[in-house]
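Page 47, continued from p. 46.
Same chain as before, 413 aa.
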Amino acid sequence: MRTKDMTTGSPARLLLQFALPLMLGNVFQQFYTFVDTMVVGQALGVKALAALGAAEWLTFLMFGLVQGLVQGFSVVIAQRFGAGDESGLKKALGGGICLSLAAACLFLVMGQIILHPLLLLLGTPDEIAGMTLIYLRILYGGIPAAFAYNLLAAILRSLGNSRTPLQAMTVSSFCNIFLDILFVFVFRWGIQGAAAATVLSQVLAALFCFIKLKGSGLISLKDKRCRPDRTMLEEQLRLGLPMGIQNMITAMGGLIVQSVINGFGVLFIAGYTAANKLYGLLETAASVVACQIRQDNQVRLPLVGDRPMEYSSNMGLPVLLEELARCTFNETERFERVLMMQMAELRKLGAVVVITTRLTSEVADLLIRMKRMGPNVRLYYVTFRTDRPERLALVGRLQQAGVEVNYVTPQGS
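Result:
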């Protein structure tokens, strides 16, 4: 099994190589939940879609608690691995497994007990309460599988291997989509089929990670070093419980929102569910793209003027402004490319941009495009006062587009 020492090498490169699979895994997870919703809505109708939506925050309550706990357990594993403490690593692995088994049994029983009272407390409409309860009972019945996958994936990441969990999530996502279609469209199992597809996909993901870990020899029931002591268990609980409780607090806020939405009826719940799933998919994909843009320091743009130079995106705005002040641009296209490179950052942070160049129709078009790119950039064009009709027409276009035009008087006039 491949591991990665995160304590040596370039920190930025290590973090990017490690984080990118995590983000892509989130994209796949959002994608299959989106497809899950689409299949249920198309095959079973509005009520089934609403039932899925009514279960969403109760599902997160369970999964968020599981993820928080195992992430806390895995922090100790990562610390021991980074320190090169093989004996401590074995104990931390054993402690994470023991605590996860105990928590899985507890949550499995408690979840089945509290589900029905919680749905009543949230005011779930009677038309969908039965379907929501069945869906949640199956998902909560799969808590051991959820613990298994999340723990094994967290262990792999603690060892610097974030690719295997991504591979497991990718295989699991496509399996979930296939089983959704099979169980709901072909076998006609209804919303129970969608829940069963999710649980079976998690079992597959857990098996995938387990096979990878088994070959490493790190986990062995016969190895006495894998038996945790009380100190190790307390340390892992001290880290895991706050993270699990944090996710529970987030879920509580979502449950309050869900209780309000439930009061508007089945159609409103279904519409909210469909929109929410689409938003989650788009938001996750956008975060990956944004990260890649922020990490891209390979872009080079030649600034050809009195002082030829190359501008790299990691030089920052102050360096760019200093070089621009020293350059003379003979072509509008080069001037436009340089300015547009910084527009995304300017829009995000807010800025005042002062342009002093000879006004032509091309420059006017550029300034108008810049102005339309966002309200956070205040754009000034500074020029000499003129009576020439063609220049006045261009100034009028700028003012009409919202570009502020300021006139200066040459010294000695």
